[in-house]
Design a protein that fits this description.
This protein is 37% helix and 12% strand. It has two domains: 247 residues, 3-Layer(aba) Sandwich (D-Maltodextrin-Binding Protein, domain 2); 219 residues, D-Maltodextrin-Binding Protein, domain 2, CATH 3.40.190. Helix 1 packs antiparallel against helix 17 and helix 10 packs parallel to helix 12. The chain is α/β, with parallel strands linked by helices. The chain starts with 5 loop residues before the first helix and ends with a helix. It contains 20 helices and 13 strands.
């Protein structure tokens, strides 16, 4: 059977009338507009005659086979323990009943068999992985063939620590198992130093969305917003109208708290601002005609988005957590029935809501207005990307195995992505499955944010400070942001 992109798989599942079952997954800290449309694109020349999977052959089977004589292919991943992102590559060493573990385990075994290799996987926190990259490349060491790591490590690309993946002939980055939005957004003059797609299932599950409490909606005679989403009318104004006056001091003590009162929405300060900003079509950078990222601080657009966001989060008294020690309470507020909405990533739904008694539904982030063509979901800075060290001993071999890991995930992991995301017993409706499809098919990437450049956290900082106007703060940081972007591009251009 021909393997399809994430979007196609989810649509097929919906057509089959799939209903959700139950069990477990796992996010913390953080959670961007090219044209949304994830994991689609024509197949590229990847060093053989492959033109993509056919109706009779899997993607992995169509890749060129080689015998690497038992070579140990070592991968170091960032663990991000709260989210288990190392599960993109590392398993328990056997099937253990955990769906993602078992799918990745079987993908790994298939790649090992095809190339006569042994996969050796390990993980550590992003600081340790960053240090390993520096030591390995500076020291001429070759302990790791591939890194699966987040933006804190990816920013080393501009310092020359990673190979241009577009120059490795055994990699086909325009194949459908690589994110075409990422390819378009992350390249610099045609060079790509970190990339993502089916090889990083946890990244594909990092898209931001909203969950809503069905019981609260029913109790207050509110229609579920699914049809509003389908009609293209799920906008920030629609959400603002819906949430107006939802926050209520239920016990009349003139103090809002999550034990006694009711909130329109709950959210985390390092996720919600970004999810809404990118959902509303915001971007902090864009590409010029020479495939060079440049700053895109449109004052009118950003201030317009911020005004709506300020009203939603501050004016309407949402439960907006700014203290990392209270991070989990933003989910507890919702799961205990004290908030109508919660802003959340798909990766965190089950871990944080598995014990929720009330049923809930899933929605994409709202658009800015109806003229915005697509819904959009950003990938947060904690998400994994694939990176190949610039001093790789054998780029052809590394590229071939990396391509196989991506194609194998496209065959064996992505088709079950829907089940991984929505296995919580509380998501029982086909409408939420449809919403998940929208979220996973509309992931966008912003180079300014993913490189953590000066000013990337501007909106988050202004909301925490409860500043009603962002214009002056934006203008005060514009020069530093422009210089940071120019310096980044210059660094990429200086890589030999």
């Amino acid at each position: 059977m021909m393997k399809k992109s994430i979007t196609s798989i989810l649509v097929l599942l919906l057509a089959a009338g799939l209903v959700v079952s139950c069990s477990s997954t796992s996010d913390k800290d953080q959670e961007k507009e090219t044209t949304p449309g994830e994991t689609s694109g024509a197949a590229a020349d990847n060093g053989d005659d492959t033109a993509g999977p056919t109706a009779d052959t899997s993607a992995l089977d169509q890749l060129k086979t080689d015998d690497f004589g038992g070579y140990t292919f070592s991968v170091l991943a960032v663990n991000d323990a709260a989210n288990n992102r190392h599960y993109d590559i590392q398993t328990a060493g056997e099937e253990n009943g955990d769906l993602l573990n078992d799918l990745v385990y079987n993908r790994n075994r298939a790649v090992e068999e095809k190339y006569n290799i042994t996969l050796k996987t390990s993980n550590d926190d992003f600081n340790a992985v960053t240090e390993q990259v520096r030591q390995q490349v500076h020291g001429g060491l070759h302990d790791y063939d591939l890194y699966l790591a987040d933006s804190h490590v990816a920013k080393l690309a501009a310092e020359g620590f990673f190979a241009d993946m577009n120059s490795i002939d055994t990699l086909g980055l325009t194949n459908p198992w690589w994110s075409q939005n990422a390819l378009q957004s992350l390249s610099v003059e045609g060079k790509v130093y970190f990339m993502t797609g089916d090889i990083n299932p946890t990244t594909m599950m990092s898209g931001g969305g909203l969950v809503f409490n069905k019981k609260l909606f029913a109790d207050h005679d509110l229609a579920y917003p699914y049809e509003t989403v389908r009609s293209g009318k799920w906008t920030i104004d629609a959400l603002l109208t819906l949430t107006k006056d939802m926050s209520q001091d239920m016990n009349g003590d003139n103090a809002m708290n999550i034990e006694d009162d009711l909130y329109s929405m709950s959210g985390w300060c390092a996720s919600s601002p970004y999810s809404f900003f990118y959902g509303m079509g915001g971007m902090m950078s864009e590409k010029n005609n020479n495939d060079i990222p440049v700053l895109r601080w449109d004052a009118d657009q950003i201030s317009g988005i911020y005004e709506k966001l300020y009203e939603l989060i501050i004016t309407q008294q949402s439960y907006f957590v700014t203290d990392v020690a209270k991070y989990d309470t933003n989910f507890k507020c919702f799961s205990d029935g004290h908030a109508y909405f919660n802003q959340i990533s798909l990766l965190t739904v089950d871990r944080n809501l598995r014990d929720m008694q009330d049923d809930y539904g899933i929605l994409p982030m709202p658009k800015y207005d109806e003229s915005q063509k697509n819904y959009a979901s950003y990938v947060n800075a904690a998400s994994n990307f694939a990176m190949i060290p610039s001093n790789t001993e054998n780029a052809s071999r590394t590229g071939m195995i990396t391509e196989a890991l991506a194609a194998g995930a496209y065959d064996m992991v992505t088709p079950s992505l829907y089940e991984i995301i929505t296995k919580s017993r509380n998501v029982r409706d086909e409408e939420s499955a449809e919403m998940v499809s929208i979220i996973t098919s509309s992931i966008v990437f912003d180079p300014f944010y993913l490189n953590l450049l000066d000013g990337y956290s501007l909106i988050q900082e202004q909301l925490i400070a409860k500043n009603a106007n962002i214009t002056s703060a934006m203008e005060s940081k514009r020069s530093a942001a422009e210089k940071a972007m120019e310096k980044l591009v210059e660094a990429f251009q200086s890589i030999e």
